[in-house]
Amino acid sequence: MTGSRRLEVETNGLDVIDDAERRGRPRQLFWPWFGANVSVLGLSYGSFTLGFGISFGQALVAGVVGILFSFLLCGFIAIAGKRGSAPTMLLSRAAFGVRGNRLPSAISWLLTVGWETVLAALATLATATVFERLGWGGGTPTKVVALVVVAALTVAAGVLGFDAIMKLQTWITWITGVLTVVYVILVAGDVHWEAVSALPSGSAQQWVGALVFLMTGFGLGWVNAAADYSRYLPRSSSSRGVVGWTTFGASVAPVVLLVFGLLLAGSSPDLNKAIAADPIGALTTLLPLWFLVPFAIVAVLGLVGGAVLDIYSSGLALLSAGLRIPRPAAALVDGVLMILGTIYIVFIGGEFLGQFQGFLVTLGVPVAAWCGVMLADVLLRRGDYAERELFDPAGRYGDVRLGPIALVLVATALGWGLVTNTSADWLKWQGYLLEPLGLGGREGAWAFANLGVLLALALGFLVTLLTRHRVRTQEAA
């Protein structure tokens, strides 16, 4: 997809990509999506999933279904990219209106900035843990240096843009892929099937909670960026190829890593507990000293791969939300916020897992609602977007479409009433519908199933399908 173009700063922001710049084949989507999701953080998700109190078999099914289904949503939304040759949150204007789309764009921006901050913080903590085990330090100076390196790689790629990201993700894919295989081989002896198979089964509500957590932690965290990389493909590219390569590239590594992570966490209660405090660093306790430096490389590069895609898409979302600056400047703004957030998490914040779950589920609800609307909108369309009218409030897509906006707001309000985040004090107001709807309240069996994410996704999708006349009218124009 990058062809033989020189590596330079990408000037395209919300622009529709010119025909001369569109190139490549759908299979090249494998590289950015695999590189962004091959992180060893996927191993830690095994511990997070077992934390819902379910057995290995239940966790395995929840993981495969949650990861594949959520990334399949990304694949379908990626179709919009090759049809419209524009960023995801610009194409969202077709559903919400030119200026009405600023609300979902702002939500998208918050999610991607939050994710890139989380990934940068994890890379910093993992590096400090490795250095501490090697006896090379591990305190504040090490964390500062690690933060500088991680931030430099992430921000530089985000500012340079598409071509730099495609090249970087290809290298990250190969390096992290090989070293991750070596890691799995080295720690395979720490898997004890008798302990894993003895894990007790959980209830249906606990299984649903794990499923929703995995959906929000994987595919639903990427849907708002799904078309940002397919937009450089020729419009004649196969839609099936776009869906297939996006889904496969994004999900293959997380599924494999999650399965092995389940085996490791299920084999050791001590490791399972340690991952909650330091999801990446805790994994080093199983390694021989000679592999700690390669592990640091695979951990940092894997997390940087995800952060790079996030900072690129967050910059585009910021522009779509109404900020009028060049795309590289938007990426730089987000980079500064990422650094400030990482400083808070690494040097000030408390336990990681509770805040992380709270962040995912809280923003996962409005993003799921937007995803439902956008997914139905994409599936209802039969032709390409009218590119110029995506910038014209008087055009066929309108200025502010109150129906879809109200739908997202209502779905979010209902969804927040059906999720709980007891481990994050600032989110205890959620779950206000669990008692009125007879679901046992904030302490009942359904309290941690996080049904609100599924409700928001389904409501946004179904209501948009029922109002298909809007899309038909737009295309007829």
UniProtKB/TrEMBL annotation:
Its main location: membrane. It is found in: Membrane. One of its GO terms (cellular component) is plasma membrane. Coiled coil: none annotated. InterPro entries: Pur-cyt_permease, Pur-cyt_permease_Fcy2/21/22. It is a multi-pass membrane protein. It comes from the Bacteria. The chain crosses the membrane at residues 30-54, 60-80, 109-131, 143-164, 171-188, 208-230, 242-266, 286-309, 329-350, 356-380, 400-419, 445-466. Keywords: Membrane, Transmembrane, Transmembrane helix, Transport. GO terms for molecular function: transmembrane transporter activity. Pfam families: Transp_cyt_pur. PANTHER family: PURINE-CYTOSINE PERMEASE FCY2-RELATED (PTHR31806). Belongs to the purine-cytosine permease (2.A.39) family. This is Allantoin permease. It comes from Amycolatopsis rifamycinica.
